[in-house]
Predict the 3D structure of the following.
Amino acid sequence: MDALGDLLRGVRADGALFNRVTLTGPWRTSRAEGAALELITVVGGAARIGTAPCEPRTLRQGGAAVVCTTAPFTLAPAETGSCDVVTGSYQLDRAVGRRLIGALPPLLVVPSGEECMPVVELIADEVAADRPGRQYVMDRMLDWMLACTLREWFDLPEACPPAWYRALGDDVVGPALRAMHEEPARPWTVAALAARARVSRAAFAKAFAELVGRPPMAYLTEWRMTLAAELLAEPGATVAAVAGQVGYADGFGFSDAFKRTRGITPSGYRASLRVVA
């Protein structure tokens, strides 16, 4: 199971808004319309970034920050003089990406690192250029940079990943979580998952609820509906086909589960995507 890959499912830049700015004084900006996530990288100098309720943090050249809130944030030079930053905004105005947003704090910061620096420089050059395919290239670079930044952040001691992410390292809960993610359509039961974990049903259910924060079958339903939301966004998708792909024998049971989890029927959700588009 690729935990970070699952968090990023469906999160793709598409016409992302980019900006390269030389900061010489305090700069406050509101969120780009519809944006739920903004990636900020420092290409020269050092910047100071803050958003309520987080304490301001300092970013040096090659460092990156992710702002995951609709509140305004403040960005200013951290030292005397100026600094250069590049920002990229994701337009996450649909249910796709909600799992990622829910897993992140309002502000996360990753210090300068060797791995991401080449992409930081490429993004900065592309923002300043006017070449064929510029938007597509920048969108893909933003996706790469987001994955790179989050991977480094999850490895930091101060990171606060979601409970299920931490539970992957548990000898009892980890195998069951991986099984649910790898085979979501399989007719899992608590007993079958406990067998994967090689413990009793009661011991497994207790450990899972303690580490993940919800019962195994409730978590499985949530994961299936996350996948279903992504599948429903595909052209030509039908409710019946998606139901089968996420483990439901008929569309009625799937529709009930989707509405309980998402607050809207699958057909209503699919129709809302066409309106947004």
Summary: Residues 113 and 232 are 38 Å apart (CA to CA). The radius of gyration is 21 Å. The longest helix spans residues 134-154.
